[in-house]
């Protein structure tokens, strides 16, 4: 069983720890967080240092893998890229809670987290370091690019594309075939009935650009 490290020791790290334990594929050595004192614990696992301590912590623990447990898309990208630059041999692991339902022909990239109750249906592709959160539905043949986040209870119809770093908020819905742009946000409860341009924030039912 591979030993892994978790970047981040905030609330999101708690759900990641829970999913890793239930998945049963990896053993957690500890956490890295620049804002938490080394020696503190989260759910019984020690904070071992800051992000820049990664090479030393890999040596002392023997950990070869990691996942970035940070909900903020831009921060997750920065931390993952810095870690990969520091330690090119680090393996980013895919964490899938056993209560998620994954279609046989779906593909899920390294560093991505899939939470309980999520459905990723046949033919869907999810990139690296994405989050498909609790009870989110990603229908057939969707394309989810790296570092995006599909929040709890959000629903994507078939063939939806979600750009890199985009956030589909809590309970939001996207009609089939649409594209949510890179780094765009569809606010909680919103319903996209047309595509959303890159970097835009849209809200409401039907969703409109937020002024
Ligand atoms: C849309 C969103 C990004 C806006 O954030 P913000 O810019 O900080 O917005 P504010 O809270 O300052 O609110 C600004 C206005 O937008 C409205 N608004 C905020 N969120 C809204 C939403 N989801 N739907 C409709 N209106 C919303 C507010 O009522 C406010 O209206 P007003 O100007 O008429 O008073 C945010 O509210 C949101 O929905 N984020 C998604 C959160 C999420 O699902 N995270 C995942 C957690 S796991």
Shape: globular
Largest beta sheet, briefly? 8 strands, mixed
Arithmetic mean pLDDT: 98
Counting DSSP E segments of at least 2 residues, the number of strands comes to: 25
Overall CATH class of the largest domain: Mainly Beta
Percent of sequence in beta strands = 25-35%
SS content category: alpha/beta
Explain what you see:
- The protein is an alpha/beta fold and 211 residues long.
- It has two domains: 2-92, Rossmann fold (3-Layer(aba) Sandwich); 94-203, UDP N-Acetylglucosamine Acyltransferase, domain 1 (3 Solenoid), CATH 2.160.10.
- It is built from three helices and 25 strands.
- Helix content is 17%, strand content 31%.
- It has an eight-stranded mixed beta sheet, with helices on one face. A six-stranded mixed beta sheet has the order 3-4-2-1-5-6, sandwiched between helices.
- The relative contact order is 0.11.
- The mean pLDDT is 98.
- The structure holds coenzyme A.
- Coenzyme A binds at residues 133, 151-152, 169-170, 185, 187-190, 201, 203-204.
